[in-house]
Amino acid sequence: MIDTTIDVINKLGLHARASGKLIEVTTKFRSSIQIGKGDKLVDAKNIMSLLMLGAGKGTTLRLVIDGADEEKALEEIQTLFAAKFYEAE
Protein backbone atom coordinates (compact mmCIF):
# COMPACT_ATOMS: atom_id res chain seq x y z
CA MET A 1 0.00 0.00 0.00
CA ILE A 2 1.20 3.48 -0.91
CA ASP A 3 0.18 6.42 1.31
CA THR A 4 1.66 9.71 0.11
CA THR A 5 0.76 13.31 -0.69
CA ILE A 6 0.52 15.22 -3.94
CA ASP A 7 0.23 18.97 -4.53
CA VAL A 8 -2.29 20.60 -6.85
CA ILE A 9 -0.17 23.04 -8.88
CA ASN A 10 -2.32 23.83 -11.91
CA LYS A 11 -3.96 27.26 -12.06
CA LEU A 12 -7.59 26.11 -11.80
CA GLY A 13 -7.16 23.26 -9.32
CA LEU A 14 -9.05 19.98 -9.53
CA HIS A 15 -11.93 21.36 -11.62
CA ALA A 16 -14.13 19.38 -14.04
CA ARG A 17 -11.66 19.00 -16.92
CA ALA A 18 -8.73 18.14 -14.62
CA SER A 19 -10.91 15.66 -12.71
CA GLY A 20 -11.88 14.04 -16.01
CA LYS A 21 -8.22 13.61 -16.94
CA LEU A 22 -7.52 12.11 -13.52
CA ILE A 23 -10.41 9.66 -14.01
CA GLU A 24 -8.92 8.62 -17.37
CA VAL A 25 -5.74 7.65 -15.53
CA THR A 26 -7.20 6.09 -12.38
CA THR A 27 -9.75 3.88 -14.14
CA LYS A 28 -6.97 2.11 -16.08
CA PHE A 29 -5.76 0.48 -12.88
CA ARG A 30 -7.15 -2.37 -10.81
CA SER A 31 -5.74 -0.94 -7.58
CA SER A 32 -7.96 0.90 -5.13
CA ILE A 33 -7.13 4.60 -5.47
CA GLN A 34 -8.33 7.11 -2.91
CA ILE A 35 -7.57 10.81 -2.72
CA GLY A 36 -8.55 13.53 -0.30
CA LYS A 37 -7.68 15.88 2.50
CA GLY A 38 -6.40 14.24 5.69
CA ASP A 39 -8.75 11.45 6.78
CA LYS A 40 -11.52 12.47 4.34
CA LEU A 41 -10.68 10.25 1.38
CA VAL A 42 -12.84 9.68 -1.69
CA ASP A 43 -12.75 7.23 -4.58
CA ALA A 44 -10.39 8.68 -7.21
CA LYS A 45 -12.33 6.81 -9.90
CA ASN A 46 -15.56 8.75 -9.20
CA ILE A 47 -15.90 12.15 -10.90
CA MET A 48 -18.51 13.51 -8.48
CA SER A 49 -16.37 12.60 -5.48
CA LEU A 50 -13.38 14.39 -7.00
CA LEU A 51 -15.38 17.53 -7.74
CA MET A 52 -16.73 17.60 -4.17
CA LEU A 53 -13.17 17.80 -2.80
CA GLY A 54 -12.93 21.45 -3.82
CA ALA A 55 -9.17 21.15 -4.28
CA GLY A 56 -7.85 24.46 -5.55
CA LYS A 57 -4.33 25.43 -6.53
CA GLY A 58 -1.93 24.95 -3.63
CA THR A 59 -3.95 22.18 -1.99
CA THR A 60 -1.97 19.20 -0.72
CA LEU A 61 -3.93 16.00 -1.21
CA ARG A 62 -3.39 12.62 0.40
CA LEU A 63 -3.17 9.76 -2.07
CA VAL A 64 -3.71 6.15 -0.95
CA ILE A 65 -3.21 3.39 -3.53
CA ASP A 66 -3.52 -0.31 -2.77
CA GLY A 67 -3.19 -3.14 -5.26
CA ALA A 68 -1.01 -5.09 -7.64
CA ASP A 69 -0.39 -2.14 -9.99
CA GLU A 70 -0.07 0.56 -7.31
CA GLU A 71 3.46 1.66 -8.32
CA LYS A 72 2.47 2.26 -11.96
CA ALA A 73 -0.71 4.05 -10.86
CA LEU A 74 1.28 6.36 -8.59
CA GLU A 75 3.76 7.11 -11.37
CA GLU A 76 1.02 8.05 -13.87
CA ILE A 77 -0.90 10.17 -11.35
CA GLN A 78 2.26 12.05 -10.35
CA THR A 79 3.07 12.65 -14.02
CA LEU A 80 -0.43 14.05 -14.64
CA PHE A 81 -0.24 16.43 -11.66
CA ALA A 82 3.31 17.54 -12.56
CA ALA A 83 2.18 18.29 -16.13
CA LYS A 84 -0.61 20.46 -14.65
CA PHE A 85 -3.18 18.19 -16.31
CA TYR A 86 -1.81 19.26 -19.72
CA GLU A 87 -3.67 22.56 -19.53
CA ALA A 88 -2.46 25.77 -21.16
CA GLU A 89 -1.44 28.24 -18.50
UniProtKB/TrEMBL annotation:
The keyword Cytoplasm applies. It is found in: Cytoplasm. Keywords: Cytoplasm, Phosphotransferase system. Residues 1-88 form the HPr domain. GO terms for biological process: phosphoenolpyruvate-dependent sugar phosphotransferase system. Pfam families: PTS-HPr. SUPFAM superfamilies: HPr-like. Its main location: cytoplasm. One of its GO terms (cellular component) is cytoplasm. Gene3D superfamilies: HPr-like. InterPro entries: HPr, HPr-like, HPr-like_sf. NCBIfam families: PTS_HPr_family. Belongs to the HPr family. This is HPr domain-containing protein.
